[in-house]
Amino acid sequence: MYLVLAVSDVDRAYDFYRTVFGWTSRLEWPEEYTDLMISDEDRLGLYRRDGYAETAGREPVALNGRVSPAYLYVRVDDLDETIQRIERAGARKLSPRSARGWGEEAAFFADPDGNVVAVARRLAQ
Asked: Cα–Cα–Cα angle for 88, 11, 20, nearest 5°?
């Protein structure tokens, strides 16, 4: 999996995702792009909005307090701890932690750029 998010400030976004999930950069173009290692195979790219627009051929929608129409869904080992970290890192709470119909407990947040991030854990069967 390789997901790329448009962000207004790459350094701020990197600090957010490193603080919340501990993901570190594998590849960097200073102030333009960073590539975070989620696993040996999976990556999260953080791309400055103007560079994203140039690559994609279109300017990403300015969210202006709204949230993106897609979300990053991350299963974590310790949901309580992750929720505390994401809140301390400055995320905006969107949907409280609750049991979801698909057998998981999840909470939804918006990162500093309005990209939606869900943190979740599987419920005991």
From this structure: 30
Pick from 99, 121, 118, 122: which is nearest to 109 by CA? 118
pTM (2 decimals)? 0.91
Per-residue burial over 75-91, b if 16 or more Cβ lie within 10 Å, else e, is ebeebeebbebbeebeb
Task: Count Cβ atoms below 10 Å from residue 67 Cβ, excluding itself.
Answer: 18
Enumerate domains of the chain plus CATH numbers.
2-56 (3.10.180.10), 71-122 (3.10.180.10)
pLDDT tens sequence across 31-81: 899 999 999 999 999 999 999 999 999 988 878 888 888 999 999 999 999
Tokens of 34: 């960073």
